Structure formats: structure tokens, C-alpha cells
Amino acid sequence: MYYFSNATILDGSGDEPYQGDVLVENDTIKEILPPNSPTMNDAVIIDASGKYVTPGFIDMHGHSDLEVLRTPAMRAKVGQGITTEVAGNCGIGVFPSEQNSTFLKELSSDVLGSYPNVGWQDFHAYRQQWQDKGSGNNFFVLQAHSNLRRMGMTGSVNRAASEEEVHKMCRLLEVSLQQGCLGLSTGLYYAPCIFATNEELLRLLEVVAKHNALFTVHMRCEGSDIVAAVEEVVALAKQTGVKLQISHLKVIGLKNQHLVDEVLSLIDKAKADGVDIRFDQYPYTYGSTSLFSMLPPQYLKLERKELQKVLSDPEQREIIKEQMETPVGWDSLAFLCGWDQVQVLSLQSNPRYSGQTFSQIAKALNSDPYEVFFDLLEQEQGTALMIDVTQSEESIIKIMRHPLMSFGTDALYTEGAKHPRSFQSTFHILDRYGKQLQVLPLPTLISKMTGVSAKRLGLRDRGLIKVGYKADLLLLDWESLHDSSDVMHPDSKSSGLDLVMVNGQIAYKDGEFTGSTSGSLLKRIQ
User: Fold this and answer.
1) Which SS3 state, helix, strand or coil, does residue 501 take?
2) How far is CA 497 from CA 336, 351, 399, 426, 505, in A?
3) Given this model, what pLDDT does residue 265 score?
């Protein structure tokens, strides 16, 4: 047993903090007592004087599908107080699949990283390996749309599916949901999901709605055409009755920040019209994704070798450049952000350029940013990631304050350098937006990271400090809490998190990890 004594309890509901003691027995919160209550002789006393005890943070948008198998203790997430994660987002996952398929390796390398014998025939098989390895935190897993397309279609997946192929996808999705997947995720910005027809999406979402599962979506556009993208997913939700979760809501491009109010108004209207809609957000003005995803959609359908052959052709480069400068119906980050706002995060074949913008590289090489971009992609044999300044802080604050917002990291754990959100998202949101800017009252901010998300996920025993709930608990020293990371030092150790407990076992205390793997692979509540 553990006994948190003299705590200031932020219970995850959004209510004001109160003083009390918390008794944990096995994996459960057994009692919440008045402060300075007599302690039990056999309980381990944790002095919480002058500190907050909160529920463990819930990451609504993660990509740790393979990271948890590579490093089961999940220190990157546990070290920032995340005790539960939703994996399988953006339509990118690892089942159903043949082992070591070229498709899966190329699909996942820039987002999920690599893993020996990657690929599992279904959620049950993945679940078995997950449980064999163990995990430092709890997981939900979504069924990824890309994998349904690969296993349900014959030949190229970068095209519209036939009626028979859609039917097969629906059968595969049915199996995943019956096995306990949280729902369906898609990435309409990425191949191959970008090629799905409206009919395909509707058919899949009918299956999701039948199971009362969740539909999470990386929208088709997050820049100049974001209004149309929101309208698209809202229409899908209205027609099917599915629960809609918009992933990492933002508006890309400083010239487009005026669209934030319109986007939030559309979401409010959808909610008023009866759509079960929410969204998640990571707390940074800059994002991170694959460098290859900056290319026009028609080139994303090509296999890596074929694409690099195209990029070696000067005439093709001019065609691609023109499309990137005058995009129609898709987000060109080069156009929306500008090359001086796109920075190399990781280039496995050219690591010397890490940390430099394309404008800086082009100047040093006496070249053009587009030519540098094409050259680097043509040469790349491994992971290629970038950071791009996508939005203003004013927009982040507007989105964060919205009542339908919940917290996510969008953390990537590929080889090479990483975005700070992979290690420090919770410190950043609490330090920058909680302490410094005081965007929201602390109880409200904590609730968006705990209780609000738990309710969205259908969790009836996590996300709150309440008798009978699972003991996923944090001890926060608010006075010393500080985010020490930046773009070039993403995993610099931050301060203020004194203890992390997952299912009643201590995973982190006083700056040290215990190596605990007490997390559970959660099934959607039927």
C-alpha cells in the first residue's frame, strides 16, 4: 500500500483543489481521507506536502505502436507523466499486415520507426506481443485505415477501392473492433488514405458507428482549405452518427491564422447539430512530419525507388515545384510556411544538415531551396523528418481554451533527432500555458489532460482521483515545474514531476525510473 499524505488534490474533474490524503491498495485508489489522517502501519508514506497529486496524464494522440515494443518501460512518456496513450493514429499502424512487408516498412518508418519482423495479422496477435513485452504505461490502440487498404486491396493501394475491396476492409475492421480496438483512424493527408473515396469512408464509418467506437482523423487539409476539410469530416459524422475526434487541430500557415475562428465556429455548429465531436491539440507552434509528405499527393503514391527516379529528372522537378507553389486541394508546407520556416530534424543519409532550415542550406550551397529539397529526398535511404513553423501562439491559445479541446502529443519515436513534444509536451503545456501565460486555470488545464480525455475514451475507472479508480497518479511540484527543452535539445530533463504511479506501481520517483512495466493494454468498452 502507498499513502500520499498532506496532498493538494487536483482530481481531474476541473474542480478546485482540496487538501487530503490518498490511500492506494494494489492497483486501486482505496480511500481519500482528510489531511493528516492516521496512517496505516504497513503503508509506504509519500509526503505530498506543498505539492499537487493529480491523475496521470492521458495522451489522446500518440504513435508509440512500435516504441513500446522497442523500449517497454516507455520512459519518454512516463517521464512526462503520461500514464495512458492512444496509439495507431493518422491511419498509420502495424496490423493487419504480413510480416516485414515493404508497404508497412515504408508506411511506418518516418512515424513509428523500425522493428524486427514488423507486422501482425490482427490486433489479437499484436496484443499478445505487447503483453509479452509489457509496458510502462497504459495503451489504447486504433485500427489504422492504411493497413485495411493494404490487406483489403489487390495491387496498388494508391487508388480508389472497388466495392468488393471496400467490403473486405469492412470485414477486417469488424474483426479489429470485436477484438477491442478503440476505433478507426485515418490520415486523409497521407497516402494511401488520401485516395479513399467518400463511399469507402462512409462504409467504414458505418461499422465504427455500429460498435459505438471512435473515429479519429488527420484531416485532408490543415492550411488554406481547412474549412472544407472540417466540413468533409463533419458531413461524414452526420451521415453515420460516428463519434468524431479531429486530430491535432491547428491551422497551418501564418497567412491562414484568421481561419481559426471560422474552424472553431464550424465545430461548435456541428456540436449544436448533434454531432459527437471533439479534438486534440499539441502545445507547439511548430510541427514535425516526414519530408517526403511535403510532395504533391500524386507523387506520394510512388514507391520510394520510383519516386527518387522521378526526382532525378529536371523536367519533373519543375512540374513538382510548380504544384508545390500553387497547391490545389492539398497543403503545401513549402507554400504555407516558406523554406525559412522548414528545418531539417533528421536526415539519415545527410545528418550534417540537421538543425538547418532549407533556406540556410541553400545559401551555404549557393543553390535554390527547392533544388536542395529534391536533392536530399533523391539521396535519402532512411528516415527523413522536418520541423515546420505552422501557427501562431495566439491560435494555440484560442484552440486550447475551447471546451472541446483535449491534450495530445503527436510524439514520434523514429531513428535520429526528434521533436520536443516526444519528451516534454506535458511540461511545455503546464509551464508555458499554465504558469507563464495562465491561459486557463490550473484545474481546467489538468482536466483537459486527464478527466476530459478519460470520459471521451469511455474510461470509467481512470482520469479522476476517486475511490475505486485505478491508481494512475502523479506528484507535481508546481513551484519547481519547468520545461527545459528546445528544438535542438528535445529531451533535456525538465523539473517538477516528482513521482509517476501506473496501476499502483511507482514507475518514476525523484528523477529515477524504476523500470516498471505495470501498464495495461486497454480494450474499448463494448
Assistant:
1) strand
2) 37, 33, 26, 10, 16
3) 98
3-state SS, residue 260: helix
Element housing 279 (H / E): strand 277-281
Verdict on whether the full-model pTM lies above 0.85:
yes
Q: Compute the distance between CA of residue 142 and CA of residue 364 in angstroms, rounded to an integer.
A: 44
C-alpha span between 445 and 401 (Å, rounded): 9
- Do 239 and 275 belong together in one domain? yes
Average pLDDT, the chain: 95
Phi-psi region of 239 (alpha: psi -120 to 50; beta: other; left: phi over 0): alpha
pLDDT for 311-344, tens place per residue? 999 999 999 999 999 998 888 999 999 999 999 9
Residues 88 and 123 in one domain: yes
Residue 214 near residue 320 (C-beta atoms within 8 A): no
Instruction: Calculate what percentage of the chain has a pLDDT beyond 70.
Output: 100
245 and 126 co-located in one domain: yes
Distances in whole angstroms, Cα of residue 404 to Cα of each of 184, 268, 410, 456: 20, 9, 18, 10
Q: What is the pLDDT of residues 97-129, one digit of tens each?
A: 999 999 998 888 888 999 999 999 999 999 999
* Burial status of residue 117 (CB atoms within 10 A of its CB: 0-12, 13-18, 19 or more): exposed
Q: CATH no. for residue 97?
A: 3.20.20.140
What's the whole-number mean pLDDT along residues 57-84? 97
Q: How far is CA 383 from CA 60, 108, 275, 290, 415, in A?
A: 25, 10, 38, 8, 7
Look up residue 367 and give its three cell numbers.
Answer: 543553390
Residue 42 vs residues 1, 45, 98, 417: alpha-carbon distances, Å? 7, 9, 51, 45
How does DSSP classify residue 426? H
> Which phi and psi (to 5°) does residue 374 adopt?
-65, -40
User: Would residue 506 count as lying in a domain?
Assistant: yes
Runs of H (alpha helix) within 249-357: 260-272, 297-300, 304-311, 314-325, 333-337
Residue appearing with cell numbers 542550406: 361
C-alpha distance across the termini of the chain, in Å = 32
Q: Are residues 218 and 294 in the same domain?
A: no
Domain that holds residue 312: 290-387
- At residue 483, the 3 state secondary structure works out as coil
